[in-house]
């Protein structure tokens, strides 16, 4: 997406490549990696490119070259965290007017021999403690990529989850009292209705429904207003992809506790 935006609507070229490479001990030490075999993924564009001042802070949170309202500057920061958590590295080569190339190196796994499968035992019902969660989560975010990724993470963790881009559709869904909804997670910075305004509306429609808000910038004012509205959690958006599952578990536990 960044490569496409760098073309600024003009004709250009985007190249995505993947190759297996070996990194020696000297190079690995310079890049903060372990020597060995890596998958090298690169994305190259012939767009506007970046100068040294932009490159210096390209992976910092909220660093963006886009106009106000067109991006949070969290994308590359999140990518950097994901790559680092997989013991890899990310770097960029860029020149103003000549485009950019992002390089990602991730440890490669040697293929294992395919062995014939052992005879399957008779199927047994899974133990209750291993069964999938029954809770239904509604996730709201005007960023489609973030919404789809978050729904995938929650579903992989065993929750039933629906994602929405439009606050009005979420409010309409919650009007149906026959539908069980256990948790609402909403982005804060959205057009039309902010996350706090959504929480205020939901409190009228479904009093007591556990609500969490994700925000790229958590301020004291946001925390105070969220607490006043009964929001149970405010999550830093930069950490959402790593924190959402444990945060959701804590949220559900808190919601089930009897109030004094």
Main sheet summary: 5 strands, parallel
Number of strands: 9
Sequence of secondary-structure elements: HEHEHHEEEHEHEHEHEH
Strand % is 15-25%
Extract low-pLDDT stretches: 67-73, 125-131
Structural class: alpha/beta
Strand order of the largest sheet: 6-5-7-8-9
Write structural notes for this entry:
This protein has nine helices and nine strands. With 260 residues, it is α/β, with parallel strands linked by helices. The chain has helices spanning 2-6, 25-31, 52-56, 75-85, 144-156, 167-175, 195-205, 220-228, 240-256, and strands spanning 14-23, 36-45, 89-95, 99-107, 136-140, 160-164, 183-187, 211-215, 233-236. It is globular and about 60 Å long.
Keywords:
globular; 9 strands; four-stranded antiparallel β-sheet; alpha/beta
